[in-house]
Amino acid sequence: MIKILFILSALVMVVASVFAYQNGRKLVEIRASAGLVHNQIRTELREITSVVEEIKKVAGDIAAVQTNVDTEAEKLKNYRLKISQLDTDNKNTEADYKVKDSEMNKLNGELAKLPAGFNPKTIAEDLNKIRQEIVELQTAAEAKKGEVQQQDDKVAAAQKALDEVVGRVENRKKAFDRNGMEASIVAVNNDWGFVVINAGEKEGITPSTKLLITRGTSTVGKLSIMSVEGNRTVATILPDSLAPGMAPAPGDRVILETLVQ
Q: Which end of the chain is more exposed for a tag (fewer CB within 10 A), N or C?
């Protein structure tokens, strides 16, 4: 039995050695094949890298070409705009030329109507003479204007002096009218000591006016203004000013105590 086991073990070892030998050869072959594949991959990778670099270079060239194309397109656009502008300017120039030509024809027609003695070649000189005459006339007009202004100033001064004289006359007349005021007492209240006079603001009486009561050639007394209306005045009798034995009565004359100068 032991011999059988020994034989079986030996047989297994032989088989294992055969398989190991075969597997070793396969492993060597696999390793050799893997090396070849690895080298091939490296070669292809280098080729791919070269192709990528070439693609990058071509892409750069394409970008540069596109930039040049865009630049040239912009230049072309600008050229077209300039051409359009030049075409517009040309049309405007033609229109201006037609207008100028029409104006020239009109001027030639006007020149043909010039009276005898006018020469187109001497029009500038004639115009200068006319301008000189205009300047001289304007100078003379300004001189006349100055003289008229002086006369106006004299008239204004005379009018001012006249207005001042008239004003003084009016003031004197008003003063005379006030000094010649004809007023009289129409009512007397002895209990309250006041009188009513038939004159007021229209006659120039004011609250500060001082009045005298007269009867014939005698002075009865003085009055102090209480109130003034349009044609009525109420005044207080000043007792200390009354003449002995006399008192105000209706009909007594009232005059200014102080005449207006």
A: N
pLDDT, position 28: 65
pLDDT band at 261 (very low <50, low <70, confident <90, very high): very low
The DSSP call for residue 115 is P
Q: Cβ–Cβ contacts within 10 Å for residue 56, how many? A: 10
Euclidean distance between CA atoms 184 and 129, whole angstroms: 85
What pLDDT does residue 10 have? 66
Q: Tell me the C-alpha distance between 225 and 205, whole Å.
A: 9
Distance CA 196, CA 12 (A): 174
Cβ burial of 228 (10 Å; 0-12, 13-18, 19+) is buried
**Rg value, the chain, Cα:** 68
As a whole number of angstroms, the distance between CA 76 and CA 68 comes to: 12
Ramachandran category for residue 120: left, alpha or beta (phi over 0 → left; psi -120 to 50 → alpha) = alpha
Distance of CA 101 to the CA centre of its chain: 43
Q: Which residues 6+ apart lie within 8 Å of 5 measured at CB?
A: none
